[in-house]
Each structure stands twice: as C-alpha cells, then as structure tokens.
Amino acid sequence: xxxxxxxxxxxxxxxxxxxxxxxxxxxxxxxxxxxxxxxxxxxxxxxxxxxxxxxxxxxxxxxxxxxxxxxxxxxxxxxxxxxxxxxxxxxxxxxxxxxxxxxxxxxxxxxxxxxxxxxxxxxxxxxxxxxxxxxxxxxxxxxxxxxxxxxxxxxxxxxxxxxxxxxxxxxxxxxxxxxxxxxxxxxxxxxxxxxxxxxxxxxxxxxxxxxxxxxxxxxxxxxxxxxxxxxxxxxxxxxxxxxxxxxxxxxxxxxxxxxxxxxxxxxxxxxxxxxxxxxxxxxxxxxxxxxxxxxxxxxxxxxxxxxxxxxxxxxxxxxxxxxxxxxxxxxxxxxxxxxxxxxxxxxx
Length: 348
Ligand SMILES: O=P(O)(O)OC[C@H]1O[C@](O)(COP(=O)(O)O)[C@@H](O)[C@@H]1O
Ligand SMILES: [Mg+2]
Ligand SMILES: [Mg+2]
Description:
Layout: H1 21-29, H2 38-58, E1 68-72, E2 78-80, H3 81-97, E3 100-105, E4 112-113, E5 121-129, E6 140-148, H4 159-162, E7 169-177, E8 181-186, E9 191-197, E10 202-207, E11 218-220, H5 231-242, E12 246-247, H6 253-263, E13 266-269, E14 280-281, H7 282-295, E15 299-301, E16 318-319, E17 321-324, H8 326-347
Parallel strand pairs: 3-5, 11-12, 11-13
Antiparallel strand pairs: 1-2, 3-4, 5-6, 6-7, 7-8, 8-9, 9-10, 13-17, 14-16, 15-17
Helix pairs in contact: 2-3, 5-8
Bound molecules: 1,6-di-O-phosphono-beta-D-fructofuranose (FBP) and magnesium ion (2 copies).
Residues 77, 106, 126, 129-132, 222, 251-253, 279 line the site of 1,6-di-O-phosphono-beta-D-fructofuranose (FBP).
Binding site for Mg(2+) 1: 106, 126, 128
Domain Fructose-1-6-bisphosphatase class I N-terminal: 20-208
Binding site for substrate: 129-132, 222, 249, 267-269, 279
C-alpha cells in the first residue's frame, strides 16, 4: 500500500477559495489559550443572521419587504419593514445561540433581557443601518458591539453590564450589504474583512489585516445641513474643498465608513440644531466603528474626546462623530476646538 505526503496543487487549475470565516475564527481562537469558544460561537451566530438578512435585502424590492412598517421607534424615526425584519433575525440568532444575556437594539426601546443564566455577553446592535437607502437599492448595513457582562453570570442584568464605555468592547463589527456583502470585525487584534460567496453560502477572508491610511482625500458629510454647522466644522470642510478633496456621502454610515476605512478619508456628523448631540447613537453605531477604526490605525472623536472613553448615560444617546484617517480627524478636532475656544473667549 503506497502512502504519499499531500502535495498542494500548484497548477492553479482550481483557484483557492481562501479561508472561511468559521476557520478563521477557529484559528484566531487558538491564539487565546483560555478561550472557551463562546465568543467564537457568538460571532458565528451573528454571521448566520447576516446571511439571512443579506437574502432579505437582496429581494427587498421583490417580496413586499420594502417600505415603511407603520410604526416609529423610540427615536421617533419611522421604522422600515427591513429594520424590523433585521431586528427579529438578529434577536433570534442571538437568543438561540446561548452566549448572550442582554441586547441593546436601535429598534427596541428598552434593554432586552434574554433571561439566559449562562449568557456571558451583552450585544449592542443597529440591525439595519442606512434605513433611508433601503428602498432605493443603495448599500445598507448592520453594526454590532460585544461586551462581557460585569455582574456575575446568572445574576440579574444591571446598568453596570449595559452602560459600559466603548473601551470595554471585546469585539465589534459591521456587515455591509452592498454590491457584495461583507462582514468586517475585530476582537482587539486587528481588523479583518470577509466577503460573502452567495453560491457557497460562506464568508471568505478577502481583506486581511485592514490598515486605514493615515491620510486621505475623501470627506463625507451631509452638506444639506451646512446652515447648522459650527464655524469650526465650516472651516474644516472649507479646508477640504481648498485641498480639492472629493466629497462622497452615501447616507449609510456603514458604507461611508467602509469606503473611507479602505481608501482613507473622514466621516463627519456634527451636532446640529435638530440633533444638538449629533445624530448617531453611541452604544450601537459610534462605539463599534470607533473600536474598528482604532484597531486599523485611524481615529474616532466627538470633536473633543475619544469616542471609546465616553461614559454612556442613556441607551439611545447620540454623539457627534468624526471618524476615519488619523491625521484628518486630528485636523478636524483642532479646527473645531480652535473655533470653539475663540467663541468662548469672545463670549467672556
Ligand atoms: O440623512 P442624514 O441626516 O444625512 O443621516 C444619515 C445617517 O443616518 C443613518 O441612516 C442613521 O442610521 P439608521 O439608518 O440605522 O437609523 C446613518 O446610516 C447615516 O449615516
Ligand atoms: Mg444606523
Ligand atoms: Mg438602524
């Protein structure tokens, strides 16, 4: 009986499909000798729900799942059907998985206690990001943050478990439902992106160890709100125009963030009279993207402080957000603070 050592094929006849997300999670888990596999399973549960929501988004136009749901959420925003569907899908996957004790969702007024005595993790989630783009076939996403609970497993959920600053995240990521569907995440050891291969039903590693360029030439801001900008924001955006930077704004945070993460750029959503604390939510939008951008060598600020150091006070609290390439966010912060200190000086 002949036994030969396996020789990987060199002919390139069958191209390598790459590393699946499952295998990657397993490989990365072995980096942590004391890992018990729960976080790995939780990431798999999120990936499964993402595959289902991906299918729903692909056929949103066909299957009468486009359009408004006919209710508003606690933020007073009209819920889209896909907001509600995505919320149901992620809730179900997270509750069935068994790793999670509580969920904070954009679409739920209160904390959802899964009454799971063995659940170690708290998840904050924006099930469907970019809702205004659902019906017009523009990229949308899902954003998630994962924390370890602070109180003993099995004890009642308390504010201590929920109101954790972003620097306590153990993992965070997003799913982008675009021309291709991608899942990008970090567990605090770099950022990796996976592309969904529909026909195989698998996410494959396509963007290993993503690094955000220190500088960029793209700025993303809703210019329709210019009348409400502070002079610091006006002067920063003007400086971008002077440098002939490109203005790119999709109106889906995940999609704008993803482009700027790969190409270099800055996304700005400042405070406005309509949203004096900014529009984006700290717990399930800003914190996750801030963890990712820092892991990729970029920066995230509210104009004054690091997003990840903000102590949350309410579930759906908003924050101004300046996020992207390190040097661009530094510049924006400097301009914002310089104008604000001038205004303070004048007012005294
Ligand atoms: O329409 P505006 O004011 O520019 O706001 C767009 C921003 O609001 C959001 O749609 C808010 O997120 P949701 O769609 O999850 O509510 C972001 O994705 C996007 O960046
Ligand atoms: Mg959102
Ligand atoms: Mg949303």
